[in-house]
Amino acid sequence: MKVAITGATGFVGSLLVQRLHGKGHQIVVLTRNTAFAQKVFPSEAFANVEIVPYTPNASGSWQSVIASCDGVVNLAGEPIGEGRWTPERKQEILNSRKLGTQKIVEAITNANPKPTVLINASAIGYYGTSETATFDETSLSGNDFLAQVCQAWEAEARKVKDASVRLVILRFGVILGNGGALGKMIPPFKLFAGGPIGSGRQWFSWIHVDDVVNLIIQALTKPEIEGVYNATAPNPVRMADLSQTLGQVMNRPSWLPVPGFAIEALLGDGAIVVLEGQQVLPKRTVETGFEYKYPNLQSALRQILN
Predict the structure, then answer these.
(1) How far apart are CA 94 and CA 90, in angstroms?
(2) Which of 59, 112, 162, 284 is the most buried (most CB within 10 A)?
């Protein structure tokens, strides 16, 4: 296959490129920073990777490369867990997803021939937060800021169906691997100062990065996969269980709670991601027969930390 990928230099995207390249596929990396992409994917090691500069929020000549592709994976979006959510930052978070997806769909619609599939990222923030409810792919959306972002993001992606292109929306949980959210939690544990964040009762719906990449590859290669799927492991945990398991795997105590106000001081509104959470089950994902390499938190953390 020939696959165009946005967000290819990121946490998930870079592993996806490596995996697809290893299977002999051709990859078009759409990037705002070609110099950085060339460092991540040096031509001598990634002969099948073509790096194309693009402006996510604007139409342009970059859109023409979509015509030669079999599939498109749209992972681009401003990080939500870094820095305070000022009004400007919230606008960036929304626009990077809504307008970025709009321009990808525009490119697919105008392509001749068209790719057969668009795999578009979304997030479990779609459901809003709750300590008591359980959500699956059929659940209604929430109404907080992140839920609104996800609704706008997905609405733009759905327009690709007007061009008779198969659409797969993957609602990502918290992705665990070397880096990402886990990278920020490990240092305090190393210093014997780890513990649950906030009340510890909030749900933590997670997935190992290897399973995310395998899910994307399944969506690319299986034409019967269509619609919305939760990219979460089948066994979500509460925050207190996460910190306890992390402490066990690292052989460190996990008794020092991080108060909610400290996270709020650091992240502002963005603290909602770690302080509230939601219990999300991958009902449709499991029904496809997808086999998780890491269905349980302990095995996932052992693999990452060892």
Answers:
(1) 6
(2) 284
Determine the Cα–Cα distance for residues 86 and 24; give it in Å rounded to an integer. Answer: 43
Task: State residue 254's pLDDT score.
Answer: 86
- Which candidate, 108, 113, 24, 45, places its Cα nearest to that of 73? 108
In the chain the beta strands, taken as DSSP E runs, fall at 2-6, 26-31, 49-53, 71-74, 117-123, 134-135, 166-172, 174-177, 179, 203-204, 206-208, 227-231, 237-238, 279-280
CA distance 260 to 208: 26
Tokens of 2: 């020939």
Q: Which helix (DSSP H) or strand (DSSP E) does residue 298 occupy?
A: helix 297-305
pLDDT band for position 31 (cuts 50, 70, 90):
very high
Is the pLDDT reported for residue 252 higher than 80? Answer: yes
Mean pLDDT for the stretch of residues 213-219: 98
Q: What's the confidence (pLDDT) of residue 129?
A: 94
Cβ atoms of 108 and 38 within 8 Å: the answer is no
The span from the CA of 88 to the CA of 104, in Å, is 23
Q: What is the C-alpha to C-alpha distance for residues 5 and 21, in angstroms, rounded to an integer?
A: 12
